[in-house]
Design goal:
Helix content: 40-55%
Bound molecules: S-adenosylmethionine
Structural class: alpha/beta
Strand content: 15-25%
Length: 290
């Protein structure tokens, strides 16, 4: 029976499992059997790109080629979901500005540093939102503030570093932020230097333990709408590394559809007025954050 070119290029069950498992161990993204078509559609162009006759060869390339790390990094641009916008999840941001930040200001008054990590920051709207809120609050004048944004996709990291956004990024943004923190350019709206100076954007895989170890301790971690794409084992691994990265008493803010249920009991669930958030226990001597 003659096979068309397209049929030849379709992922077989076995190729799907091999490639799926390889991607999973690289970055925690898990494609279940219902996503075979999706993986096929997104990766088929890579065969032509590398001049490979089929998915079996592509698997060999991903596993053994000397450029395999680069290829794995490149396909993160087409396999990840990067939906985001400024001022996403307003209830949580209100808990952040009205309840968490005043507490941190009080507890950290002595060392006057604040370190916040936006893990899985996509094109940067989240870390820049955090920076704008901090600047507007003006609680931390004279403090050393660091907001670290990170993502596994090079494409979104580059976008975040450029800091220019189209209209849809502002669907939940009050006009006053646009006026104060952006300037209009040909391609959209550019984030101003005052905000940018508080934020560093990094290319980082949440499963790269060596890279994570270099981050240093954080007072607060935003990881919103990232672990929904992971299976339980990957969620546990990532949350454990957040726990290690947080200072005692530090906060973990997940997306509104995410929770630590069945993942860990290491964090306390705090019912704040505006939202529920997770917190790592403070030290046993009752002191504040360290
Ligand atoms: C849906 S976006 C969420 C953006 C933002 N946190 C928000 O809530 O608006 C999820 C981001 O997580 C990133 N991501 C997925 N797996 C990752 C991993 N293993 N390491 C780092 N980033 C990852 C994706 O590239 C994507 O940009």
């Amino acid at each position: 029976m003659l096979m068309t070119m397209e049929q030849e290029l379709q992922l077989t069950e076995e190729e799907f499992r091999l490639i799926r498992d390889l991607i999973y161990s690289h970055c925690g993204l898990f494609f279940d059997s219902d996503s075979k078509y999706l993986l096929d559609k997104r990766l088929v162009h890579r065969l032509a790109h590398h001049n490979l006759p089929g998915f079996r060869d592509y698997y060999q390339y991903l596993k053994y080629d000397r450029n395999k790390d680069q290829e794995l990094s490149d396909i993160m641009d087409i396999l990840t979901t990067n939906e985001t916008y400024f001022f996403r999840e307003s209830f949580q941001l209100k808990a952040f500005t009205d309840e968490i930040l005043p507490e941190l200001q009080f507890l950290k008054e002595r060392d006057r540093t604040l370190r916040i990590w936006s893990a899985g920051c996509s094109t940067g709207e989240e870390p820049y939102t955090i920076a704008m809120l901090l600047l507007e609050l003006d609680l931390f004048r004279g403090w050393r503030i660091e907001i670290v944004g990170s993502d596994i996709s090079q494409r979104v990291v580059q976008h975040a570093r450029k800091g220019v956004y189209g209209k849809s990024a502002f669907r939940c943004t009050d006009e006053r932020y646009l006026k104060r923190f952006f300037t209009e350019t040909d391609g959209g709206y550019r984030i101003c230097d005052e905000v940018r100076e508080l934020v560093s954007i990094n290319h980082m895989n949440l499963f790269d333990a060596n890279r994570l170890a270099l981050l240093g301790k954080m007072d607060l971690i935003f990881c919103r709408n990232v672990i929904i794409y992971f299976d339980l084992a990957s969620k546990k691994r990532v949350i454990e590394s957040f726990y290690q990265t947080l200072r005692p008493g530090g906060y973990l803010l997940l997306g509104h559809s995410e929770s630590l249920m069945n993942i860990t009991t290491a964090f306390a669930l705090r019912h704040l007025k505006n939202d529920m958030v997770y917190q790592k226990a403070a030290t046993s001597n009752g002191g504040g954050l360290q």
